Amino acid sequence: MYWLKVKRLCPAVIKRNNLVKKIRKLNSYQFNDMKSIEQRLDENYIPGCIKHKDEYQFYLMPIAWWILNYAEYSPSILQDISRQNFRNGAFNITDDKIDPFFISISEDQISIPEVKSMIENFTEEYSAITFFIDFDKKIFISAFDYIETETYLPDETWNGRYGNPTDYIPKSIVDQIS
């Protein structure tokens, strides 16, 4: 239901889906993991990087999963019994909800070779790293244009801003994906 709302708000999503389909036809070769990457991009998943306990990991997730305080973004979720399993009940990713959150996003984790392959095989508009979340320093960086995700933070100890997420990822990691 949420994605229908986003599609109405941003026609670029429809354009993105059409472009992904065209790219798929143009590419005659496939990487083993590329099909799942293609499927996720086709379903409007967005790439980003999360730092936790000094480790950097990439994820390809729906926009709703990148919004740290979903309870503030969409308060109706708290009344919707059918959505109580959303992110293992971690509607607001406070310190006590980090573990359930990471369990819920584990299947969305992608490797550095997968990120590199995605960047090489899809246009920057759809494969660019769009989010950076640093749970150690409580920093949220977003380059997402359609929702001010950087304003839906767990609490006042967090700092969120619009910017280039790769500016916050170590150069040694950025070099591996570019």
Structural description of this entry:
With 178 residues, the chain is α/β, with parallel strands linked by helices. The protein has one domain (2-177). Helix content is 39%, strand content 16%. The protein has 9 helices and 6 strands, in the order αααββαααβααβββα. Strands 3-2-1-4-5-6 form a 6-stranded mixed β-sheet. Strand 4 (131-134) and strand 5 form a beta hairpin. Mean pLDDT is 82; it is low at 1-9 and 19-33.
Please name the defining characteristics of this protein.
178 residues; alpha/beta; 9 helices; globular
Which spans have pLDDT < 50 for at least 5 consecutive residues? 1-9, 19-33
Give the integer mean of the pLDDT values.
82
Output the radius of gyration: 16 Å
Tell me which oligomeric state these chains represent: single chain
Main sheet overview = 6 strands, mixed
The coarse silhouette is globular
Spatial order of the strands forming the largest sheet: 3-2-1-4-5-6
As a percent range, the share of helical residues equals 25-40%
Distance between the termini: 35 Å
Please, how many domains? 1
Q: Tell me how many strands there are.
A: 6
Q: Tally the helices: what do you get?
A: 9
Order of helices and strands: HHHEEHHHEHHEEEH
> Based on helices, strands and strand pairing, what is the structural class?
alpha/beta
How large is the share of residues in beta strands?
15-25%
Q: What layout of secondary structure does this protein have?
A:
Elements: H1 2-9, H2 12-26, H3 34-42, E1 46-52, E2 55-61, H4 63-66, H5 70-73, H6 98-105, E3 109-110, H7 112-121, H8 124-127, E4 131-134, E5 139-142, E6 159-162, H9 171-177
Parallel strand pairs: 1-4, 5-6
Antiparallel strand pairs: 1-2, 2-3, 4-5
